[in-house]
C-alpha cells in the first residue's frame, strides 16, 4: 500500500525535513485489524504528550481521520505514523511557520512464531545502556540509536528480545517492548521518568490491572527484582504479550505464570477491538 504524506499518496520526503536531519519528531506504530487501528486513543494520547513536550503543533482531528482512513484501506497490518516538525534549512532552530509533516506507512503484520506467545522467549542482556534525559523520557521520539545499537548486539535466532538497563543499572525495558515482572501476585514495571518508552500496551495493561483489581507498582527495578520474580513478560502494541522464559546471561528462567496468561488474554482482546 502507498505511503501518505500529509494525507496524499507519496514515495519521497523533502530532503530538508527535520525528521531526517535531526530526528525532530515522533512516531507511533499501530496494529491494524479488519481495517481498524487498535488502541488508537492511547496512541493519540502519547503522541499529544510528545507534541506538548517537543512544542510541535499538530492537527489531531486530522491525524485521527487520516489514520482511520488509512487503516480501513490497509485491512490487516501495521500502520506507522511519523510526525515531524516539518521542513527547514540548515541549523537547529526551526523555521517559523513551518507546518508539521504527517507520514503514514503500511506494512504486513509480522509473522512471529506462535512459540513466542505460547512457550515464551529468551532475553539477551544488552550492554548498551539507556541515557537519562527526563525531557524525552517516555516519548516515542525519532531518535532510536540506543535501540539500534542494542539490537546489533545479537544475531542468533535464540534470543527474541533484549533486556535494557540505564546507566545506573536499573531495569528499564526491552529493545522494542516494555518489561513486566510478577512477584507475590503484584505486577511490577519500571519507572520511566528518566528514560525509556512508555508503551501503549504497557499503559493499557496498567489500566486493565486497575479494573481487574490486580495490584501493581510502577517503580525503580533492579537486577535483584528480576532474580526474585515469579513471572516475567514483555509487551508491545503489535504482538501483545510474550512470556519471558529465560535470561541466560543471568542464568534465570521462569515458567509462563497464571497472571501472565490472564493478561495475555486481555491483550489479545484489546488488540482485536
TrEMBL record:
Primary gene name: pabC
EC number, UniProt record: 4.1.3.38
Catalysed reaction, written as an equation: 4-amino-4-deoxychorismate = 4-aminobenzoate + pyruvate + H(+)
Pathway: Cofactor biosynthesis; tetrahydrofolate biosynthesis; 4-aminobenzoate from chorismate: step 2/2
Subunit structure and binding partners: Homodimer.
GO cellular component: cytosol
Enzyme class: lyase
A Gene Ontology molecular function term of the record: 4-amino-4-deoxychorismate lyase activity
Function per UniProt: Involved in the biosynthesis of p-aminobenzoate (PABA), a precursor of tetrahydrofolate. Converts 4-amino-4-deoxychorismate into 4-aminobenzoate (PABA) and pyruvate.
Keyword Lyase found: yes
GO terms for biological process, alphabetical: 4-aminobenzoate biosynthetic process; folic acid biosynthetic process
UniProt KW keywords: Folate biosynthesis, Lyase, Pyridoxal phosphate
Family statement drawn from the similarity comment of this UniProt entry: Belongs to the class-IV pyridoxal-phosphate-dependent aminotransferase family.
Keyword presence, Lyase: yes
Protein name in the entry: Aminodeoxychorismate lyase
Pfam families: Aminotran_4
Entries under SUPFAM superfamilies matching the protein: D-aminoacid aminotransferase-like PLP-dependent enzymes
Cofactor: pyridoxal 5'-phosphate
